[in-house]
Amino acid sequence: MPARWLIREDLKMGRRQQEETERKYDVDAATVFPNLADTSAVDSVGQPGTFLLEAVYFATPRLDLARNGVTLRRRTGGHDEGWHLKIPAGQDIRTELREPLGSGRTVPEVFRARVHAIARGRTLEPVATVRTERREYPLRDAEGGVLAVAADDNVRALRLGGGEEVHIDRDAKALVGVATARQARGRSGTLFYGHH
User: Fold this and answer.
1) pLDDT attached to residue 173
2) Are 155 and 52 in contact (CB under 8 A)?
């Protein structure tokens, strides 16, 4: 079964908002994660950290959010656990808004208000669970500073209710740091795009 790599660049705009650019590429199970030290901007690649993430995706019964390119999820695990709302902001670009995880599983009111025009009062309910095993590789410059973090994800998605497996993907992401975002953004194509 072919898998897919998702190339994502995050440009952090603040603690609760960021812009991201995504491009998806189909790969097969034998595709090797690229050697990221072979790029001119990267002096070394640090030891990877491994994280287990679980995200529950919310939608209306008619999937109105997805039809409008909007994603709403509650993620646990990793550095960015919490509620995430992704809204289209241009070709391949989305704005991601974040809210703290909290103890409940009810969609935060601020997110309900943001999607009200799309949901039109229909309930927002859990529709899928995505489990991700992520390996993050810090990409360092000559001074040891982190230019970006590359992530290699193994993803399993399950539709809630029926328990049917929807897909298995392999994703690669460039998670860009604030201080060097412009520098790393210009280089992200050389990191991944040739491997698809």
Assistant:
1) 63
2) no
Share of the chain above pLDDT 70, in %: 70
Residue whose structure tokens are 């959010």: 65
| Token duo for residue 107 | 């969609």
H/E stretch holding 188: helix 181-192
CA distance 126 to 188: 34
With tokens 């500073």, the residue in question is 145
CA dihedral 11, 13, 14, 20 (to 10 degrees): -40
Joined tokens for residue 16: 């609760």
DSSP assignment of 94-148:
EEEEEE---S--SPPHHHHHHTHHHHTTPPPEEEEEEEEEEEEEEEE-TTS-EEE
Nearest C-alpha neighbor of 147 from the set 98, 187, 97, 96:
187
pTM for this entry: 0.74
Q: Which two tokens mark 161? A: 């209710």
- Domain edges within the chain: 3-192
Q: Which fold has domain 3-192?
A: Hypothetical Protein Pfu-838710-001 (2.40.320)
Under a CB-based contact definition with an 8 Å cutoff, are residues 111 and 37 in contact?
Answer: no
